[in-house]
Amino acid sequence: MLGPLIFLVAERLSLVDARSDWTYPWKYDSMFFEGQDYWGVHSEWAMCSRGKLQSPIDINPSLLLHDPSLKPINIDRISVHSEMVNTGQMPRVRIGNSARRPTANLTGGPLNTYRYRIQRIDIHFGVTGQSNGSEHAIDGRKFPMELQLLAFNADLYANFSQASRSTHGIAAIAVLVEFGPETNAELLRLTVAALSVQFKNQRVDLVDLSPWKLLPRTRDYVTYEGSITAPPCDETVQWIVLNQPIHITHNDYAEWSRLSQNSPKEDAMPIAPNFRSLVAPNHRTVRTNIAHISEEDKFTCDTSRITYKVFTTHNQKLT
């Protein structure tokens, strides 16, 4: 059985190299050749397997380095015109930008003096009944969902594609989603919209979406240098993981399981779970603006006030 399998892989590789301009299909499920275990065999996606600054990672609270220079993150409090599309791998919100309806920008925090223009929101989740759908983990614990607001450096680059291949190119805010008694109002809008994009390439307009309303009420975060979590896995991302979650009810969470990877004429294959597996941090520095949290405020699963236990000594260094 091993011989034919090796031949099949070699045959597929030759096809990829011969057609480097072809849009190569990919999946999260590694039961398929297009799955994440095989992303790196594509010559243009080699970073997915060889890179040392890949994402997502498990954030170890005991190794966080307090950085007093980190300022709060700022996001424009405006509504934007957008659409949700089922890409076949995930539901993605694409945000428009025009003179009449500009998109929201990110500034502050670890972004220096640059202005980052929000381009899209990627949505990751697990299967119904499980709570491991997030990409990032905190101290080994994952969450039901993760919303990723991805923005490109509009001061240096003309578009997201150019920025994603360049230094200081991309900023990404990771919003973790926990189960709760009530769904965040803006996340509920996305949940309702998802019912209109159950199949691949279906899309629906989202009028007056407010990305800032998807963020929890906290100024606390951790940040590290990483990558896009899907091919081609470019290592040009400044990740900002917020220190509190937003919430979704179990019933609303179940609605996301309706989404399919396929077109309506094909046999349905669920999108969920649609997250990349955790990758090695490789001794990267993970910084935080959280200076101190007392013992009684450390992480517990059932509180919305303090969500993640953080490192409380200022001078700890990574080992």
Brief write-up:
This protein has 319 residues and is an alpha+beta fold. The protein has two domains: 1-45, no CATH class; 54-297, Alpha carbonic anhydrase (Carbonic Anhydrase II, Roll), CATH 3.10.200.
Question: What this model shows, in words?
Answer:
Residues 24-290 form the Alpha-carbonic anhydrase domain. This is Alpha-carbonic anhydrase domain-containing protein. The chain is an alpha+beta fold and 319 residues long. It has two domains: 1-45, no CATH class; 54-297, Roll (Carbonic Anhydrase II). Helix content is 13%, strand content 24%. The chain contains five helices and 15 strands. The protein has helices at 2-18, 47-50, 160-164, 185-194, 250-255; strands at 58-59, 65-66, 73-75, 80-86, 91-95, 105-108, 116-125, 137-138, 145-153, 170-179, 203-209, 221-226, 237-242, 246-248, 287-288. Strands 2, 3, 4, 5, 6, 7, 9, 10, 11, 12, 13, 14 and 15 form a 13-stranded mixed sheet that branches. The radius of gyration is 20 Å and the shape is globular. Residues 1-22 and 294-319 have low confidence and may be disordered.
